[in-house]
Amino acid sequence: MDASLLTVQPTAPEPIYRQIVGQLRRLIAGGQLAAGDSLPSVRDVAGFHAINPMTVSRAYGIAESEGLLERQRGKGMVVAATRKAIQTESHRLALLEPQLQALVRHTRELELPAEPVLRRLTKLLGE
Amino acid sequence: MNAMLRETESTAAPLSVSGLVHCYEGSNVLTGVDLTLEPGSVLGLIGRNGAGKSTLIRTMLGLLKPLRGEARVFGEPALKLDDNTKARIAYVPQQPEALAWLTAQQMLDYVGRFYPRWDQDFVRNTLERWQIQPNKLLAKLSPGERQRVDLVRALASQPELLVLDEPAAALDPVARRELLREVALRAGESGTTVLFSTHIVSDLERVASDVAFLHQGKLLMRCSVDETKERYARLWLPGKMSAAAPVASLSRRRYDDGSLSLVIERDTRGQWPEAAHLPGARVDTLGLEDLFVEIAE
Q1: Do A53 and B188 touch (CB under 8 A)?
Q2: Which of B9-13, B215-219, B243-247 has the lowest mean pLDDT?
Q3: Average of per-residue pLDDT across B133-147
Q4: pLDDT greater than 50 at residue B229
C-alpha cells in the first residue's frame, strides 16, 4: 500500500489520527487491503502528507489495538491475519455508527418523527 | 558531576515562560503569559494581527526584556544564554535583516562555521529547490527570498529548538509544504522542539502537536490539536430556548432573531452540556479555524 492512498484533510473537524484509523477500517473491511499487506511506514505517511509522525503512530497504534494491524518483524505494520472477524455483520454495522448518529442528530434538529425517516431509509436501502 | 549537569540540561524544557507582561508606549501587549514547551513538541501559536505573537516569541528567546516575568531556554535565563545554548537554537524572524551586505552563499558559509552539525548538502539542495540565487546580495533579495534564505540557515544548523515567526508568509504552496514536511519529520525523528506562529491554520493542523491561541495579550487556549477538535463545538439554540444556555461558554453571540450561538466544551465524562440535547438545538463540530474565529471575534 502506498502513502498516497490515504487522504488527510487537516481542516476537517475530525482529528487527522481518526481520519486515518477510519480509512484503514474501511479499506480492510471492504477488502481493498488484504491480510498480510504491508502498510507504508510512519515516515512515508508523515512525509507524504507533511503531517506529524506522532499522529500517524497514534493512528497505527489504535488500529493495532483494534486488531486491524499487526507489527511484523522486518516488514513493519501489516494487515492482521485474523481479519475474518471484521467481516461479521456487527463489525461492519459498527463502522456505520458515526453516520447513523449524525442522521439521528439531524433528524432531531429538524424535529422530524422517526417514522418517515425510517420509511425513507428503508426505501433507499431497497433500491 | 558532569553527568548530573547533562541530566538537568536534557530534562529542562526547551522553552518556558511565566508571568510575562510587556507593553509598548503604554498599550499592553502581553498581560500575563505562562507557557512551556515539552521536548519534541510542535507548538503552533496563532492569534490575530497585533495579538502579540512576535513580542511573545522574542521575549521567550531573550531578544526582548519583558516588563515583568521570566523566560527560560533549556533551563537558562533567556536574557543570559551562553554560546553552547545558542548553538542549539535556531530562530527565523518575520523580517530577517542581519548581514545584508553579504550574498546568500557568503552568509551561509560564515554562519555555518558556528554550528557543529551544519548540513552543507541541505543548504545546497534547498537553495536550488527554493530558487534562490546564492550570489545575490541579501539586501537585494525580496522580503520573501530573505526569509527563505533564513529558513535554510535555521534548518541547516540542525537545531534542537526551532522557532519560526510566520514562516509561511514567504513561501509558495509547494515550498510551504516542503517546509512543513521538514518540520514534521525533524520533530518526529530527531526530537526537534518547534515553536511557530502562523495565520494559516491548516499548516498548524498538519504538523502541530499543540496549539496556543494568543488573544489580547493572553493565552486563551493551550491544548493538543486533536483534543481541541474533540473537546469543543458550536451550539446553536433557537430564541425560545436561549434561557437554557449553559452559563459557562467560551464565546456567546446573540442574533437578531433571538437565537444564540455558543462555543461549548465537553465535561470530564466527555458529555456536552445538557442544552445540546434539547429539541431544536444544533451542535456543529468545528475545525480549528472556525473555533478561533468564534472565540476571537
Answers
A1: yes
A2: B9-13
A3: 88
A4: yes
CA-angle at A91, arms to A86 and A92, nearest 5°: 95
Looking at residue B8, its pLDDT comes to 47
Question: Has residue B65 got a pLDDT over 80?
Answer: yes
Q: Are residues B238 and B196 in the same domain?
A: no
Nearest of B82, B161, B4, A77 to residue A69 by alpha carbon: A77
B192 and B288 in one domain? no
With contact defined as beta carbons under 8 Å apart, do A77 and A38 qualify? yes
Give the domain extent around B21: 2-216
Residues B165 and B275 in one domain: no
What pLDDT is recorded for position B200? 84
CB contact under 8 A, B287 and A11: yes
Q: Identify all chain B residues contacting A4, using CB atoms and an 8 Å cutoff.
A: none
Q: B204 is written with which cell numbers?
A: 498548524
Q: Which of A14, A21, A54 to mutate to test the interface with B (most CBs of B within 10 A)?
A: A54
Percent of chain B with pLDDT over 90: 37
Dihedral class, residue A37 (left if φ above 0, else alpha if ψ from -120 to 50, else beta): beta
Contact across the interface for A109 and B280, Cβ inside 8 Å: yes
